[in-house]
Give the backbone structure.
Amino acid sequence: MAPRYLNASYSLLSYAGGRYTNISVPAPLPPAVSVELSSCCNLACPECMTGAGLLARKASFISYRLASDIATQLRGHVLSTWLSFQGEPMMHPEFFRIAELFRGMNTVISTNGHYLDRENCISLAGSPLKKIIISYDGFSPDTYSIYRRGGDHALVTEGIRMLTSTVRERKSGLKIVLQYLVHRHNEHEVRAAAAFAASVRAGFRIKSMQLLDPERAGEWMPADRRKARYPLSGGGARPDGRVPSAGCFRMWTSAVITADGDVVPCCYDKNAAHVMGNMRNSTFRDIWVGNEYRIFREKVMRDRRLTDICSNCPQGRRIFFRR
């Protein structure tokens, strides 16, 4: 069995053991890692930390040198890498050069789709990426712009057409998925967006919406309660009771590395409030099995309610839908 599969198996076993003993004995490395290429974005989406201007850390691009060091340390150990976190990855001036570093690592990006010109589409078709997830949150320009503020619906739509046709022409293995962040103002266009995805032979999925401010639930939660991440209770959105009070699978199986090298426990630590270490002065393995991580894991295993970032985590809830 390849080392990365052994590592993944060990992660599952170590989580199961930690769940019942509250002792942190993780695998040598997690099977999945997100690497933030950019904490900058060209849009101003209101319920996004970056778009709303609420990101407390400095907006930056990861350096090629740091990305290369990360890729070297992860190679052969991880099952997948995500080259996305808070910003728009394709804004990085060395995006394709950095993506090449992660060739053979089942690499995925999530993008707002504003950088899909002809040249970039050709490069994407020949890149090491396995999947590209493109935000497409409205079939009409007016609906799209309600959330994707500053976005250009026509540009994104044309970019999707160009990318899908380029991938077919070049017989690329790149998987293209349109992701529809559903809310009160766009749920009436879900079927039209899904039909568009089918017409260009792209995948399609619906994602429930995360709120930064629960008191705005009435503004954003869709009428279709199945697709609302939180049910309404009182004046705002609250967890629906399915969220476990203790334990977290992600603490044993994934991690996030920010553009400036900070290692944080998961994608809900958007402001890097819980830094386990920094890749500029430690190896990823040393950070992953280090004391800071051990203490944090054991705290979450005892009671998630003691950790701020866990309060908005969807673990235990369904957040993706096909229709």
In short: The chain is about 30% helix and 15% strand. The mean pLDDT is 90. The longest strand covers residues 129-135.
